[in-house]
Design a protein that fits this description.
241 residues, alpha/beta, Spore Coat Polysaccharide Biosynthesis Protein SpsA, Chain A, seven-stranded mixed sheet, two-stranded parallel ribbon, 9 strands
């Protein structure tokens, strides 16, 4: 696409992804070369302590690299990428390649008619190639149920790591965000709703990839406490009940 037609900035937050990120970046690079609507690929190295940054440097010229230390959390990495993006639309994807680059076409099309677009692995039309282990499915169910209860969401797959927004709205939300880690997805959707944004959902192709940073126990308790704190913070300036 050329001229005044809108373009999409793709943001990939990465923390200690030396074992998983290279095949995904090759996939993204090929997709960008064939699809003119992709403005740029921004990979945000969120304080990695392994060889992630040296792998990113192999793609110099094909991607934009933002790197900082120490690690600040996936939410902070996404926020940093959004604030640096140059496309009319922005979307973020997980560095493990769980969602393939081919899904960017549906994301771009859906953003033509929605302010925010959320990928969904749980609809009938979604294509899940490798399912999550049972314990992760249970955690995901519990998280989505808790979010629905606390925030009155009708988004059924809040944690899906494939989301897109119109850039002006995304930058506005990024400047307001307080969540740097696990609950940032919830905050993005909550703040978008508070601003009256139109939120669309698309079924996606998705595969579970081993190597999650999520740990049962302390993380689970922390996430629940973070959700309560986020609800309190947003309730002070919104209509949440």
């Amino acid at each position: 696409m050329h001229g005044n037609k809108p373009t999409l900035s793709v943001i990939v937050p990465a923390f200690n992804e030396e074992r998983r990120i290279k095949p995904f970046l090759l996939d993204l690079k090929k997709f960008k070369e064939k699809n003119g609507f992709i403005k740029e690929i921004i990979v945000v190295d969120d304080g990695s302590t392994d060889a992630t940054l040296s792998i990113l440097n192999e793609f110099m010229g094909a991607i934009r690299i933002i790197s900082y230390k120490p690690n600040k959390g996936k939410g902070n990495a996404v926020k940093t990428g959004i604030l640096g993006a140059k496309g009319a639309f922005v979307c973020f994807m997980d560095a493990d390649g769980a969602t393939p680059a081919s899904q960017l076409t549906a994301m771009f099309q859906a953003l033509q008619g929605n302010d925010v677009v959320v990928g969904n692995r749980k609809t009938e039309k979604a294509r899940v190639i490798a399912r999550q282990p049972l314990y992760r499915l249970f955690l995901s169910w519990g998280f989505n149920a808790t979010v629905a209860l606390l925030f009155n969401f009708n988004v059924t797959d809040v944690l899906c790591g494939f989301k897109g927004m119109h850039a002006p709205l995304a930058k506005q939300i990024a400047k307001e965000m307080q969540s740097n880690r696990w609950v940032f997805d919830v905050e993005i959707i909550a703040r978008a709703r508070m601003k009256g944004a139109k939120i669309g959902v698309i079924p996606i192709e998705w595969s579970h990839v081993k190597g999650s940073k999520m740990r049962i126990g302390l993380n689970t308790v922390r996430i629940f406490l973070d959700l309560l704190e986020l609800r309190r913070a947003l309730k002070r300036k919104s209509q949440f009940t």
